[in-house]
Amino acid sequence: xxxxxxxxxxxxxxxxxxxxxxxxxxxxxxxxxxxxxxxxxxxxxxxxxxxxxxxxxxxxxxxxxxxxxxxxxxxxxxxxxxxxxxxxxxxxxxxxxxxxxxxxxxxxxxxxxxxxxxxxxxxxxxxxxxxxxxxxxxxxxxxxxxxxxxxxxxxxxxxxxxxxxxxxxxxxxxxxxxxxxxxxxxxxxxxxxxxxxxxxxxxxxxxxxxxxxxxxxxxxxxxxxxxxxxxxxxxxxxxxxxxxxxxxxxxxxxxxxxxxxxxxxxxxxxxxxxxxxxxxxxxxxxxxxxxxxxxxxxxxxxxxxxxxxxxxxxxxxxxxxxxxxxxxxxxxxxxxxxxxxxxxxxxxxxxxxxxxxxxxxxxxxxxxxxxxxxxxxxxxxxxxxxxxxxxxxxxxxxxxx
Length: 401
Ligand SMILES: Nc1ncnc2c1ncn2[C@@H]1O[C@H](COP(=O)(O)OP(=O)(O)OP(=O)(O)O)[C@@H](O)[C@H]1O
Ligand SMILES: [Mg+2]
What we know:
By secondary structure, the protein is α+β, with helices and mostly antiparallel strands. It folds into two domains: 44-204, Nucleotidyltransferase, domain 5, CATH 3.30.420.40; 206-368, Nucleotidyltransferase, domain 5 (2-Layer Sandwich), CATH 3.30.420.40. Helix content is 41%, strand content 23%. It has helices at residues 3-44, 111-114, 133-147, 171-180, 207-214, 262-277, 284-293, 313-330, 347-358, 370-400, and strands spanning 45-52, 56-60, 65-69, 71-74, 92-97, 105-108, 121-122, 154-163, 182-188, 191-204, 229-235, 240-246, 249-250, 256-258, 339-343, 364-366. The protein has a ten-stranded mixed β-sheet with strand order 3-2-1-8-10-9-5-6-4-7. Strands 11, 12, 13, 14, 15 and 16 form a six-stranded mixed β-sheet that branches. A hairpin with a 3-residue loop joins β1 (45-52) and β2. α5 packs across α10 (370-400). The two termini are 49 Å apart. The mean pLDDT is 90. Magnesium ion binds at residues 53, 205, 234, 236, 344.
């Protein structure tokens, strides 16, 4: 073969090969870049659930579950001790919000131990709670706390929050939704977080338990709950919710929100214990803490911690009877109910006694982790909604490329 021809062939083949590799590389990098861009979009949207109770705030993200009292304090209330610069053993954080510029607050699990009772700012009230600045601040601090686990300053959030059932789809619901949707700028321990809530759902609190007990790991809902009728008793700090759902929809005629809760039991026990011991400093939250520690003592100090175990049966029984009586007025015929769930942190306190009083042993389910059951179900819903939104975004991003 002609040498010149062979040389030409090699030269052109080589050029084509280089061109081909170049093209492959360019297409490859475009595909990879597009994929990365889509994945980045995915990583930026977080699913959060927040249940802001009268007693405790419960919040959850993919990183953590948080439980802290629904109580704030100003940073000033900490006081300045000579050793305060060295103190590292605490579980609260310092927050600032655009809602109240220039004022620094503290909030966290051990806030009650660090600040004297008179300086604590409770958010527990039945009156226009959702318009109160303190209530809104608490929501923002919970958002900032969850945001602080993400390594970005600016995050987008799909949020599922929950309210006492009789306030869902009312003015309270509207004003809370208006406040929550949009951008929240909160500084936590000196670091600014920009939390953009792009989607808000507000649900009845007990619906979370129905979801958490009936959704599998793939977030598929058990067919039973989509057709049957269940009554849920949610034993909260300030309220007891009796809610009946058919096919996951609340039936108002078979539901009621009772404005008494575990706090009323604590208050009765505190009064009896004060009378018996003549210790005037006993506060209902000492009783609450004694129930949570399960030692049934009111720990006023290391030296003074009277036991209250002998005082708990009567108020618990009276409470259960009262709830059953009020339930019977809305659910006159229990035969139409397929099953009962006991949930809310108070189920740890009154659960056994209530089950006894209800007399529906075979049809009653005690929620796993009752204080967190509502939150866990709503978190599953937030993930479901976030994934749906992501799928839409990915589709849009992919068609644009
Ligand atoms: N493991 C536990 N042992 C004893 N008590 C508990 C436990 N967990 C929670 N509690 C108590 O149960 C009560 C109800 O807690 P929960 O968090 O359900 O109330 P909440 O949602 O804040 O109140 P509400 O529903 O009225 O707004 C609280 O007083 C809480 O301290
Ligand atoms: Mg609750």
